[in-house]
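Hi everyone, sorry if this is the wrong subforum. Our group has a chain we'd like a structural model of before ordering constructs, and none of us has done structure prediction before. Sequence below.
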Amino acid sequence: METALEKPYSVGTLHYTLGGVLAVCGWMLWGGFCYSMLAYVLVPTLLPLTLDSFHASGALIGLVVGSIPAAMNFVMNPILSTASDRTRTRWGRRIPYLVAATPFVALFMILIGWVPPITNYLHAHFITGMSMNSLGILLICVFAVIFQFFNLIVGSIYYYVFADVIPHQFIGRFMAALNLSGTVIGLLFNLFVMPYVTDYAPMVFTGIGLLYLVCFMLMCIFVKEGEYPPPKQFQAAELPWYQRLVNWVKIYFRQCYRHPFFTFLFLGTALNNASTICRQTFNLLFATEELHMTAAQYGRVMAAGSVVSAVVIVLVGYVMDKIHPLRVFLGSGIIVILANIWGYYYVTDYASFFVVGIAISVVYAIQYLSNGPVFVDLFPPDKFGQFSSANAMMNSVLLIFANYFGGVAIDRFGYRFIFAWDTIFTIGATLALIYVYVKWKQLGGAKGYVPPPTD
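Answer:
Right subforum, don't worry. Here is the predicted structure as tokens:
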């Protein structure tokens, strides 16, 4: 029987040979591939199309597809994340949540695809007093909200599993592979599924929903979590439930935000995410309105950026495991600042936009790639989900204001201000992360980092 010494790769109480590491990474990637197909490709693409088929307004589409899930996530993420950190079962602390929610995610996703025939049947036999469009929109809204409820459980918990089961020296390469799988998903979907979504929507939803159900459940069966010490008790169990709820809110915020190291880390990543708002929203308009490029030219720049980014992140994933993701994240911010300053003054035509567009796309991909591993290495392992949710909360609050005031700034200064906006926020993010880097070195750095006390 092999001993832990003969299995050189460890995370928590789990010990692997190299083959074991490859196996667990393979199952996590397969589950992530199918989840991404459903949550990041199918829903954003086809849910608006389904709503539009019933003549829903743009405001309603935005509400159902974006605003409601964001509001639900703001409330649910901290609760789910903290609860999973403190869950102890024979199957682990994360897997039970995924197993419980996954069938409902698949079911309601399939039901969304079948709304048109369901609407026709109900309208013909039972609900004749409501218009067809109103009934269809109502059904989509109900199914979509229930879908998002269960999908947020999966989305909140899945990304915590690999922090618990994958040895941290492989996290960078794993994240690179996960990002590449997302690129592959987009290509496959657009090439082989998109041509059929209009005429065969029920079959598309059903096929992807069943594929997700089978593959994600197989991942939950074959990925084994380790053992965790009992969670600390912070208050007496005999207190009234409402008092315990108030106490938990106080404990949550005290633990997550009491130490400046984590507060500045949250702030740095939030500012970095806010820095991309104007570019995401107005980059196409800048290219077409100010530089007089065609949409086809813009598409070629974005496609080239995706291809180059896919090649670069393979190399960065390996490098990140060697030099630490915090250094990669911090260094990429400096490159973003320089690229935006150059772009503000010198992007005047298609050629210069192409160069800067490729550079910024690649650096954004590097930042996105290193983001998760930074959290895996720096957040307290016993409260990983809780601290991830605290980071998400700060991001959500900042993005609410950034989306609005970014539009105000563009109205005031023009589309070229996307470069200035990115520069200003990335400078703020970089300063915050420099503070984090200095403190990280003081706390042990790459060789001996120990998270600061949170209790």
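For your construct planning: The chain has a mean pLDDT of 84. The longest helix spans residues 18-53.
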